[in-house]
Automatic annotation (TrEMBL):
Residues 530-557 form the Peptidase M24 C-terminal domain. Gene3D superfamilies: Creatinase/methionine aminopeptidase superfamily, Creatinase/prolidase N-terminal domain. Keywords: Hydrolase, Metal-binding. The keyword Phosphoprotein does not apply. Transmembrane segments: none annotated. This is Minor allergen Alt a. Signal peptide: none annotated. Residues 6-138 form the Creatinase N-terminal domain. Residues 304-430, 483-519 form the Peptidase M24 domain. Belongs to the peptidase M24B family. GO terms for molecular function: hydrolase activity; metal ion binding. The lineage of its organism: Eukaryota, Viridiplantae, Streptophyta, Embryophyta, Tracheophyta.
Length: 559
């Protein structure tokens, strides 16, 4: 890491203008939270492998900002050359940079890796101290990254109508109506999941996400897909052409945006505000209309999602039964489902269950199910104190062995052709401490409250549950790429409930289900505004012996 920092500082000095600081975001050219190996620039520079974080390198310091999900992980992975800045506890980048960096400092960033909103906010913040945000002509990290992974060459595939529920032609027609309403000539689509959704294509360019590295431009009378043409087979190309979509090389998007915007004086191009690198003169910076369209599941997608969760739930139950038997045979533990006394067996020293072994077993059970295409994220398989690391990822060489006297937490999901799953369960295979016995019912209560909740349409929902400290990411949407959305919930949207509690160095507890928003059947419909509620679609049991029913109300017990 020392050599990397030294090389970057040398490039900062020789840059025109010279840079006093360099920002290295986590995101790729599409503002993706989860990126390909080739785009893990922040990880390469810092050694921190979490999905969220911002690096700032100055002439004498190197800092990483990240959120509560990753505090423990960052402390373990950062070398002594780095300073961890805890979001919510330490000064934010917007506060730290103008106060600490020299007056009139030049702060560099690759414009493709930062949103327009963020770049403009930084420019306003820096202007107070006459500091300047400098858009580097090249990514400085790429220039020092020897043996950088090559670009992905995975093929683009069609996503059949039997799973998508809507044709490309229908989606393009609806999008063009929205463009006409905005008096916009076209739209540049930068988010990978939105490109895949609009054109009904899938790929494997990013681990755990069936997306393709591509941009899209749709105008009132044309449509383009910007992608490495070598990935597009003649079959897929013909399918795209049938829908009026022209395939162009990935790198042509920037010049095409400028050309399209400049050729139409009285109309603008609509650009998602998340993308700074394609910013042209004649643009409307707005939230992409596809984000909401994609979040509203059509009947085919909802049915597929429910079916995927049934199959996925079967795999999880099979896993819990297998784990139950293994723990009894190897450790003599009382098991996941059993409430009886500890089995009178001696532990077989030649057999071990590690975090990786049980994680691989769960993946294998999922792989046996119809339409399975891979995991939806790296499985969090964590024992004891590792469960306090919210996004812990076990490694075969260093992972822990399952201990019947410790908590075991697994957070996992699958990518199926008809839907994406995400589930978390916490189990204990022997005796419990008081706090742990209390925490599980508290989190189960949080989940039950979501299930029983009725709320007004167009209302943003936020629940505050008990006094326990929640550091987990909170509810997020489920599609083929989960992402957080702070928008009013609507019928057919999907979200997760994910309460968690963590004691550093001791244990972690979390439960998680997927919910579908539906119309609520209320008795009075007060105000005649309409009410919504949630429908759980995750099928996997909770560990009964971890639940103290005396802490739940009769309504919560009955469901």
């Amino acid at each position: 890491m020392a050599d990397i920092l030294a090389s970057l500082r040398s490039l900062m000095t020789s840059h025109s203008p010279p840079l006093d600081a360099l920002l290295v975001p986590s995101e790729d050219y599409h503002q993706s939270e989860y990126v390909s190996a080739r785009d893990k620039r922040r990880q390469f520079v810092s050694g921190f492998t979490g999905s969220a974080g911002l690096v700032l390198i100055t002439k004498h310091e190197a800092m990483l900002w990240t959120d509560g999900r990753y505090f423990l992980q960052a402390m373990q992975q950062l070398s002594d050359q780095w300073k961890l800045m805890r979001i919510g506890e330490d000064p934010s980048p917007d506060v730290w940079m103008p106060d600490i960096l020299p007056r009139e400092a030049a702060i560099g960033v690759d414009p493709w890796c930062v949103s327009v909103d963020t770049a403009q906010r930084w420019e306003r913040t820096f202007a107070k101290k006459k500091q300047k945000l400098v858009q580097t002509s090249a990514n400085l990290v790429d220039e020092v990254w020897k043996n950088r992974p090559p670009a992905e060459s995975n093929p683009v595939v069609d996503h059949p109508l039997e799973f998508s529920g809507r044709s490309v032609a229908e989606k393009l027609k609806d999008l063009r109506v929205k463009l006409a309403n905005e008096k916009a000539r076209g739209i540049i689509i930068t988010a990978l999941d939105e490109v895949a959704w609009l054109y009904n294509i899938r790929g494997s360019d990013v681990s755990y996400s069936p997306v393709v590295h591509a941009f899209a431009i749709v105008t009132t009378n044309s449509a383009f897909l910007y992608v490495d043409k070598r990935k597009v087979s003649s079959k897929v190309s013909s399918s795209l052409q049938e829908n009026g979509i022209e395939v162009r090389e990935y790198g042509a998007v920037s010049s095409d945006v400028v050309m399209l915007a400049s050729n139409q004086l009285d109309q603008a191009m609509r650009v998602n505000s998340s993308q700074n690198g394609v910013y042209a003169n004649k643009v409307l910076l707005q939230q992409s209309p596809l984000a909401l369209e994609k979040a509203l599941k059509n009947p085919v997608e909802l049915e597929g999602l429910k079916n995927a969760h049934i199959r996925d739930g079967a795999a999880v139950v099979e896993f819990l039964v297998w784990l139950d038997k293994q723990m009894q045979e190897i450790y003599g533990a009382s098991g996941y489902f059993l409430e009886g006394e500890v089995a009178n067996k001696k532990r077989l020293e030649t057999m071990k269950l590690t975090e990786v072994i049980v994680s691989d077993k769960l993946e294998g059970l999922r792989a046996s199910k119809e339409h399975f295409r891979g995991l939806s994220f790296p499985t969090i398989s964590s024992v004891g104190s590792n469960a306090a690391i919210i996004h812990y990822s076990p490694q075969a060489e260093t992972c822990a062995e399952l201990d019947p006297n410790s908590i075991y937490l697994f957070d996992s999901g699958g990518q199926y052709l008809d839907g994406t799953t995400d589930i978390t369960r916490t189990v204990h295979l022997e005796s419990l401490r008081h706090m742990r016995g209390l925490a599980i019912p508290m989190f189960l209560r949080a989940i039950l409250l979501w299930a029983m909740l009725d709320f007004l349409m167009e209302q943003t929902v936020m629940l505050l549950i008990s006094w326990l400290e929640f550091l987990c990411g909170g509810p997020h949407q489920i599609s083929f790429r989960p992402q957080a959305q702070n928008v009013p919930l609507q019928v057919s949207m999907t979200v997760t409930d994910e309460p968690g509690y963590y004691e550093d160095g001791s244990f972690g507890i979390r439960l998680e289900n997927v919910l579908v928003v539906k119309e609520a059947d209320t008795e009075f419909n007060f105000g005649d505004k309409g009410y919504l509620s949630f429908d759980h679609i995750t099928w996997a049991p909770y560990q009964i012996k971890l639940i103290d029913l005396s802490l739940l109300t009769p309504e919560e017990i009955s469901g």
